[in-house]
Amino acid sequence: MDAESAELKVLDTAGRLFDERGVQAVGMDAIRTASGVSLKRLYQVFPSKELLVEAVLRRRDEAVRAALAAHGEQTADGPYERALAVFDWLAGWFAEPDFRGCAFINTFGELGGVTPAVTALARDHKEALRAYFAEQTDALGAPPVLAGQLSLLANGAMAVAGITGSAEPAAQAKAAARVLLDAARVRP
Question: For the whole model, what pTM was predicted?
Answer without folding.
Answer: 0.93
